[in-house]
Write a structure and sequence with these properties.
By secondary structure, the protein is an alpha+beta fold. The chain is built from 9 helices and 22 strands. The chain folds into 3 domains: 4-67, Nucleic acid-binding proteins (OB fold (Dihydrolipoamide Acetyltransferase, E2P)), CATH 2.40.50; 91-120 and 264-429, Vaccinia Virus protein VP39 (Rossmann fold, 3-Layer(aba) Sandwich), CATH 3.40.50; 126-247, OB fold (Dihydrolipoamide Acetyltransferase, E2P), CATH 2.40.50. The strands form 5 sheets. A 7-stranded mixed beta sheet has the order 9-8-7-10-11-12-13.
Length: 430
Amino acid sequence: MADRRKQPGRAVELTVEALGARGDGIAKIEGDSVFIPHTAPGDRVRVSLAPKNRVSSIERLADGPARVDPPCPHFEICGGCSVQHIAEAAYVSWKENILREALLRRQIDPAPIRPMARGAPGRRRRARLHFIATATGVVLGFREGRSHRIVAIDSCALLTGRLTGFLEALRGALRSCLKAGARGEATLTDTETGIDLTLALKDEPDLRLREALSEIAQTHDLARISWKPLSRTGGEEAGPVIARRAPTMRIGDITVALPPDGFVQPTAAGEAALRDVVMTAASGAGRVLDLYSGCGAFGLPVAETGALVHAVERDPAQIGALNHAARQAGFGERVTGEARDLDRRPLLPHELAAFDAVILDPPRAGAEKQVEQLVLSEIPLIAYVSCNPVSFARDAQMLIGVGYAIETILPVDQFLWSPHLELAGVFRKG
């Protein structure tokens, strides 16, 4: 008998049993899993199955108890959110389980996980949008899920009111100064002194475009507009086109002037929750090493308490911003900085020996090369901030293997309604 699962377009009725790690509903058919986007546990659906159990169409027949009405009209089209339709209790359980499962896959006891620090709408202070100029206007928004198509948005339940209020003005401004066919990215950061806008475009702005951007900055009272080359690989440096005033962020009581396209934590509340874990762990440490430091979201407050902090970050501009902020705050003598690519040149054990504690805040890929050196050191305390439970669990497994114990892990929901999860974990040896 032929395997019916290989026949394209087969219509079947299924009941969603759980949510997967990416937010898709999971149902079972003949022992295999079927992943169904935008469904909730308990939903009864009729789906059309393509080869390899890929879902080609979905009809919802009955709603499960975990389903609620999504708050955003763009949901299911815009790819920025995947689980706006899940009730709060089910959502929190699902998101905490992403971390739990990542640890269990590495044979790590999840007992140190604390209840998640919850997110809320309207708090995202940084967002990267895509745009393309057409003959009739500019399409500005986020990419559709599993697609490169841009979904035009006129509002976003995630963003701060200032950023949401600027979307239509940004669309109109781009329409006025871009030729049809131009495409790129717009990164918006809501700073203490106004919106900081970075445009990623294929070509450097010419005089006409620079004049148009200057007018945009004046009209909408932007703090700064910068440009960087559009690239799929990333890593290109941004430079200011028009700077009316320095975009600044408050880190506790410290003011940091951000470099163009400088990294900041997505929400102020999430950053504060992560910082509390780091500062509690590092309390009493005399010499602290802040690795992947960025502009000092964690190292600067630790230095403010009296510790000597050495910050290491690949981007020299962020190191410069960190050092300047420390001087302006009156404790510059306690902070040193080093521009260094830790993935290529991790600090070695003899360099680590001078420190009592390490703060790690790597990108999504984690800090594997640096952790390989940390396990050879005698550093007694590591505070690890991560935006990826999978790479965190991999690095944690290495640390545990040489005698570190996890004291606590705080999951922090900075990326509301998505499968992305931030966390702060504390490791102690001896």
